[in-house]
Design goal:
single chain, mainly alpha, Multidrug-efflux Transporter Regulator, Chain: A, Domain 2, 2 domains, two-stranded antiparallel sheet, about 5% strand
Amino acid sequence: MGPMTVNEIARRTGVPSHTVRYYTRIGLLRPARKRDNGYKEFTAIELHRLNFIRRAQRLGFTLSEIREVLARAARGDSPCPMVREILSRRLVENRRSLHELTTLVQHMDAVLEQWASMQDGVPDGNAVCRLIESFSEP
């Protein structure tokens, strides 16, 4: 596989070209520059790296975390313990968020059912929306 332009690597990975440029600008990708015109040339290494970045993002890793994983690997240190720790922590956070969201949805269902029997009100200077103003926290 020969060198690729920004648009070519974007097409091969399904990543928008502006994202490829951004990752290059922040140092996640390190393409070479063509001597004759200064265009960036991406190799199979950058293609693999970009696919790695996208996989890590789909698992919930931030770009900052991905940068650290790549840096550890570049130093010859295994990033796997850190990756496990981040994913474990993120899983706990996501479970907590899911629980909070599920509780919110249940509460919204109950409030909407209660509001179905209430008449609409007209703002009168003291009230804006009687529905929200009648709402009391659980």
